[in-house]
Request: fold
Amino acid sequence: MSTPTTLQFCLMLLRRQVSLAIRRPIEIGNPLVFFAIVVAMFPLGIGPASEQLAIIAPGALWIIALLSSLLTSDSVFRSDFDDGSLEQLLLAPQPLYLSVLAYLCAHWMVTGLLLALVSPVFALMLNLPAAAVGTLMASLALGTAVLSLVGGIGAALTVGLKRGGMLISLLILPLYIPVLIFGTAAVQAAVSGAPAGPFLALLGAMLSLAVALGPLATAAGLRISIDA
Reply:
């Protein structure tokens, strides 16, 4: 049997991770259910007035998306570490950077991308103006990709710990703040009628930087955790 090329190997990893997530619906459902529950709580907490909900909608939706992504970060490498396949990945001849990138792309597809796709439903629940829904989806698609790449660093550093969820929060939550600021600003700009393009461009620049550096840091974290 011929050895797969690097591209084929990464595509197989991506397909494998997505297939595993589909077989465990709770991994896909948890962020969506969390998002829905918290969004539903806002009208109960601050009142059903549509004007108030529209004011808080950009920040509220982005904060919930950030927490939903954080909720699943700990599981990116956990199962492969437990069954020993993560050690084999580190020994594979393919570049670890690309293998890690495949893992993180799969995590984004089953969390952040899904949140971006269903976000119009939650936006309507908080009375977000229809003109801002497209910007919300675009900002979430870009921003959650950054969150997955940054979250992978924390997941790699804590994969050997039995209870690493809280430590991940302490490690990576400060790095999430710029994404939250610019993501919220993009939606707020769309609500007010101002151009949202500059904020989306900043999110795109952050994504480019995260793609370049995030998998490198994650790969280094995995080597530290496996060798420890």
